[in-house]
Amino acid sequence: MSDAHSAVLPPRSRTALAGCTIVVTRPAATARMLLRRVRARGADALALPGLSLRAPRDTAQVRAALIAAGAAGVWIFTSPSAVHFAFQALPRLPIAQPARVCAVGAGTQRALLRHGVRAFAPRGRQDSERLLGLPELADVRGQRIALIGASGGRDLIASTLRGRGAGIEPV
Predict the structure, then answer these.
(1) Distance between CA atoms of 59 and 80, rounded to whole angstroms?
(2) DSSP code of 80?
(3) How far apart are the first and last CA of the chain?
(4) Which residue has the higher pLDDT, 109 or 35?
(5) CB–CB of 135/111 below 8 Å?
(6) How far, in Å, are 66, 95, 150, 159 from residue 166 at the CA level?
(7) 162 exposed, middle or buried (CB, 10 Å; 0-12, 13-18, 19+)?
(8) Are 80 and 115 in contact (CB under 8 A)?
(9) DSSP summary character for residue 125
(10) CB 140 within 8 A of CB 164
């Protein structure tokens, strides 16, 4: 939310959090918008990143994994950072048409669009559970799915889709 946009908030919205201090623990690169929104509603916002996102050390391995995933019928990106690091490793991702591209949320969807990739994402709640509830991922038996995300995250997407009969290519 830009400062200009915050000026059009209804009066109550501009002070809804007045007197509060909100601690934002998102990684620094992804916290900016949330910090602006919190401040636009009158709160003091304190950025205290709970983790730091970095490019993988072995970009050759990431590049190879992205190329190997080229024939996947479905590509799932778990975060704007996953999009950033994937395109940093391989600027021309081999997403074969008519592959479906999925984003866990609207921020990831926007990050993909900045690279010319159209993706669908859940509306409303934006998380792994909501993504897995989409009709597009209901019947994936026998499909190859490229899962682009950070190591160490929850395994919910991969394990659920494997349970539905998909082959997962983690990147």
Answers:
(1) 18
(2) H
(3) 32
(4) 109
(5) no
(6) 18, 18, 20, 10
(7) middle
(8) no
(9) S
(10) yes
Tell whether the model's pLDDT for residue 6 goes beyond 50. no
pLDDT at 7 over 70: no
How many other β-carbons are positioned within 10 Å of the β-carbon of residue 65? 19
Q: Where residue 160 falls among pLDDT bands split at 50, 70, 90?
A: very high
User: Residue 117 pLDDT more than 60?
Assistant: yes
Q: Decide: residue 28, CB within 10 A, 0-12 exposed, 13-18 middle, 19+ buried.
A: middle
Which of 48, 35, 74, 32 lies closest to 169 in space, CA to CA?
Answer: 74
| pLDDT at site 2 | 40
For residue 56, give the DSSP letter: -
CB 140 within 8 A of CB 167: no
Q: pTM for the complete prediction?
A: 0.74
- Sheet with 144-148, side-by-side order of all strands: 100-103, 74-77, 144-148, 167-170
User: Does residue 10 have a cis peptide bond before it, meaning omega lies within 30 degrees of 0?
Assistant: no
Instruction: Determine the angle formed by the axes of helices 28-40 and 80-89, rounding to 10 degrees.
Output: 150
Token representation of residue 67: 């190329």
Instruction: Decide if 72 contacts 145 (C-beta within 8 A).
Output: yes
Give the span between the Cα atoms of 18 and 46, in whole angstroms: 14
Distance of alpha carbon 132 from alpha carbon 10, whole angstroms: 35
Task: List the structure tokens of 15.
Answer: 């002070």
